[in-house]
Automatic annotation (TrEMBL):
<dbReference type="Pfam" id="PF00723">
    <property type="entry name" value="Glyco_hydro_15"/>
</dbReference>
<protein>
    <recommendedName>
        <fullName>Trehalase</fullName>
        <ecNumber>3.2.1.28</ecNumber>
    </recommendedName>
</protein>
<feature type="domain" description="Trehalase-like N-terminal">
    <location>
        <begin position="3"/>
        <end position="140"/>
    </location>
</feature>
<dbReference type="InterPro" id="IPR045582">
    <property type="entry name" value="Trehalase-like_N"/>
</dbReference>
<keyword id="KW-0378">Hydrolase</keyword>
<feature type="domain" description="GH15-like">
    <location>
        <begin position="217"/>
        <end position="585"/>
    </location>
</feature>
<dbReference type="InterPro" id="IPR011613">
    <property type="entry name" value="GH15-like"/>
</dbReference>
<dbReference type="InterPro" id="IPR012341">
    <property type="entry name" value="6hp_glycosidase-like_sf"/>
</dbReference>
<dbReference type="Pfam" id="PF19291">
    <property type="entry name" value="TREH_N"/>
</dbReference>
<comment type="pathway">
    <text>Glycan degradation; trehalose degradation; D-glucose from alpha,alpha-trehalose: step 1/1.</text>
</comment>
<keyword id="KW-0119">Carbohydrate metabolism</keyword>
<comment type="similarity">
    <text>Belongs to the glycosyl hydrolase 15 family.</text>
</comment>
<dbReference type="GO" id="GO:0005993">
    <property type="term" value="P:trehalose catabolic process"/>
</dbReference>
<keyword id="KW-0326">Glycosidase</keyword>
<dbReference type="InterPro" id="IPR008928">
    <property type="entry name" value="6-hairpin_glycosidase_sf"/>
</dbReference>
<dbReference type="GO" id="GO:0004555">
    <property type="term" value="F:alpha,alpha-trehalase activity"/>
</dbReference>
Length: 595
């Protein structure tokens, strides 16, 4: 049987990430970057598309238990067998130049025979490399890619059925370490890594990082796990944070809503920055802010909704027909065609992020205000146009209310920045007038007085969970009857067994796609935030407790959840979901923390 999304844990080195299943198999790993081609693609196909399983010989099912070491991204997976017990410790240490995947097998009790099966398949499972032996290593080469595998101590290894196999026995206290290292095939052999020293250093580094967390309220371990996950999804060389470590994990099993999320979205910027700043991670917040500044530099008319890890703009979308998809959910897509969409809300997210960064005291740059003024000049006329909206719908442009609200946010933050910093130059009077005009139009055209709710787009009867952000961004105060009415309407009409849908997918033509989807987890966190702001804090806390309970056994969330099957859906682990968890915890419990 295919593993479920919640059966996976993630390890990584802040430049890429691997997904490890409960059965001890690494089923997804892109090298050398998050957005590189995968060398293990069983996640989206089958074993012949690449994987690496280490488990007791004859064990076909899941492990007995697994857990991250506290405050780290180091994963321990244990099996109890009739012969004894064995532990596999998985990690990807901070790299010097080449990425390493380390798997340490340790006898815990008795005497256990362990089997390793490695099938390397480059270019998303389509290329079988040439394997050879060299200086105690197994070396796989195909085109630009080369992978070196060694064990300490050496164990018997052989090739069979286009795979590399090892078998050995460990008793209590005995250890066998596997080290897999990628490097460009034209370069000399990579340096030798000491697996035990790498483990020690990784645990120490992660625990030192975790000790900086300022949150000490309820569910601290879960909040910290979300922060660690955000750190794991950070591309350290640039500070960019990818939306998820995967592509094409489906929003509906067997459906076509399968997208590549291994890129950096501007929509995440303000919420990410706020979570990092309040939790005490100023260095990461500043790195993200600096990535943002580099990515959006240029003509404001060319502002994109997403960028590559280093700010790349071209992310062409194509399909991989040789992969069957997760649980048969095809197509498998690489790249993301939504990069070419127009989404006006990103201007608000950029302006709000820079406003938040200025207030937090992050290092100022002389060109930042000039960039903001250029964005405002563009918005002066562009805000009147329709767009594709926050959710990247593929059913045509509309006047989405959330987009217009975020335009208002952009102008509001520009006005407030000038009011607080009178030495800055800008069209203060013009921006004030524009802010009032946008606000007036949204309240007139985006609000349904008969139902007492804002709607998804002008003149539409549909609702949208993004409207829950209206009080959070300050467009209207939380006690405004229109805000309360909108929260209640969304709660009633977009309910999915107590959770929240983004919109009525499958019931309208707004997104231009067939099929349905699960409850979008960040939207449920937004509902908790909105309930709290509108004075219903106990209900907000009850919803938060339920959402925390949806994390898998190692504290991870994907994009969506299906209450009917009780399964996670969508790309994994999902930054947006973990950002929502952190921000809601901070909103609900920050003031209750011990001094």
């Amino acid at each position: 049987m295919h593993q479920r999304i919640e059966d996976y844990a993630v390890i990584g080195d802040e430049q890429t990430a691997a997904l490890v299943g409960r059965d001890g198999s690494v089923d997804w790993l892109c090298l050398p970057r998050f957005d590189s081609a995968a060398c293990f693609s069983r996640l989206l196909g089958d074993e012949e598309n690449g994987h690496w399983r280490i488990a007791p010989k004859g064990a076909h099912g899941p492990c007995t238990r697994r857990a991250y070491r506290p405050g780290t991204l180091v994963l321990d997976t244990e099996w109890e067998t009739d012969e004894g017990a064995v532990r596999v410790t998985d990690l990807m240490p901070q790299r010097d130049t080449a990425p390493d995947l380390i798997r340490i097998v340790e006898g815990v009790r008795g005497k256990v025979t362990v089997r390793s099966t490695l099938r390397l398949r480059f270019d998303y499972g389509s290329i079988m490399p040439w394997m050879r032996k060299s200086d105690g290593h197994r070396v796989a080469v195909a085109g630009p890619d080369s992978v070196w595998l060694r064990t300490e101590p050496a164990v018997r290894t052989w090739g069979k059925d286009f795979g590399t196999h090892s078998e050995f026995t460990v008793e209590e206290g005995e250890r066998v370490a596997f080290v897999l290292t990628w490097h460009p095939s034209h370069e000399p052999r990579p340096r030798i890594v000491d697996p035990d020293e790498a483990l020690r250093a990784s645990v120490a580094d992660w625990q030192a990082w975790s000790a900086r967390c300022r949150y000490d309220g309820p569910h601290r371990d879960t909040v910290l796990r979300s922060l660690i996950t955000l750190k794991a999804l950070t591309y350290a060389p640039t500070g960019g944070i990818v939306a998820a470590a995967t592509t094409s994990l489906p929003e509906q099993l067997g459906g076509v809503r399968n997208w590549d999320y291994r890129y950096c979205w501007l929509r995440d910027s303000t919420l990410t920055l706020g979570a990092l700043l309040k939790a005490g991670y100023l260095e990461e917040a500043e790195a993200w802010r600096n990535w943002l500044l580099r990515a959006v530099a240029g003509d404001p008319a060319d502002l994109q909704i997403m960028y590559g890890l280093a700010g790349e703009r071209r992310l062409p979308e194509f399909e991989l027909p040789w992969l069957s998809g997760f649980a048969g959910s095809a197509p498998v897509r690489i790249g993301n065609g939504a990069v070419d969409q127009v989404q006006l809300d990103v201007y608000g997210e950029v302006m709000d992020s820079l406003w938040l960064a200025r207030h937090a005291g992050l290092t100022s740059r002389p060109h930042i205000w000039a960039l903001q003024c250029a964005l405002m000049d563009f918005l002066r006329t562009a805000w009147r146009e329709p767009d594709e909206g926050l959710w990247e719908v593929r059913g045509g442009r509309r006047h989405f209310v959330h987009s217009k609200v975020m335009v208002w946010v952009a102008v509001d933050r520009a006005v407030r920045t000038m009011e607080e910093n009178p030495e800055l130059e800008g069209d203060l009077d013009g921006w004030r007038a524009m802010r009032d005009e946008v606000h007036r139009e949204v309240c007139e055209k985006g609000y349904d007085p008969e139902r007492n709710t804002f709607t998804q787009s002008y003149g539409s009867p549909e609702l949208d969970a993004s409207l829950l952000l209206i009080p959070r961004v300050g467009f209207l105060p939380p006690d405004d009857p229109r805000v309360v009415g909108t929260v209640d309407a969304i709660r009633a009409e977009l309910d999915h067994d107590g959770l929240v849908l983004r919109y009525s997918a499958g019931k309208t033509d707004v997104d231009g796609l067939p099929g349905d989807e699960g409850a979008f987890l960040v939207c449920s966190f937004w509902l908790a935030d909105a309930l709290h702001l509108t004075g219903r804090t106990e209900e907000a806390r009850e919803l938060f407790e339920r959402l925390v309970g949806l994390t898998n056994d190692v504290g991870l969330l994907s994009e969506e959840y299906d209450p009917v099957t009780g399964s996670l859906l969508g790309n994994f682990p999902q930054a947006f979901s973990h950002i929502g968890l952190v921000n809601t915890a901070l909103a609900l419990f920050w003031d209750d923390q011990p001094d």
